[in-house]
């Protein structure tokens, strides 16, 4: 929360996000999980410099890149762990122009019943 206060409240950055994006992903360490894709929910925040974007996409981050990166990363093949998947998405996001940091939360939706899920959340900062 301190990072959000520093970045958002002090006017250092803005945050764009993708909420509740569900994608079939080959994920899981158990043999029973390796053949069939599972539903994974992604909640992603991308931190950008708080600059004048001049009401033009040329000066702004294209929000569509968030879901495109999820698609690109998940198309690479099977992931054993959610941690690995979340890190791959996060690192791909911070390679994008304008991106300062990304928070990626994943949840496997088919493991538990009753709407419960197991998940992981990571935060990745750009090296720039």
Distance between the termini: 22 Å
Q: What general form does the structure show?
A: elongated
The low-confidence runs, each spanning 5 or more residues with pLDDT under 50, are none
The chain-level mean pLDDT equals 89
In CATH terms, the superfamily is GTP cyclohydrolase I, C-terminal domain/NADPH-dependent 7-cyano-7-deazaguanine reductase, N-terminal domain
Give the quaternary arrangement of the chains.
Answer: single chain
- Going by CATH, the architecture would be 2-Layer Sandwich
Count of helical regions: 3
Largest sheet: 4 strands, antiparallel
Which percent range fits the helix content? 25-40%
Q: What share of residues are in beta strands?
A: 25-35%
In the CATH hierarchy, what is the class?
Answer: Alpha Beta
Task: Report the count of strand segments.
Answer: 4
What number of domains? Answer: 1
CATH third-level topology: GTP Cyclohydrolase I, domain 2
Could you say which structural class the secondary elements and strand pairing correspond to?
alpha+beta
- The run of helices and strands is HEEHHEE
> Which sequence of strands runs across the widest sheet?
1-2-3-4
Gyration radius over CA: 16 Å
Secondary-structure blueprint:
Blueprint: H1 2-9, E1 13-25, E2 38-49, H2 64-74, H3 82-94, E3 101-108, E4 118-125
Antiparallel strand pairs: 1-2, 2-3, 3-4
Helix pairs in contact: 2-3
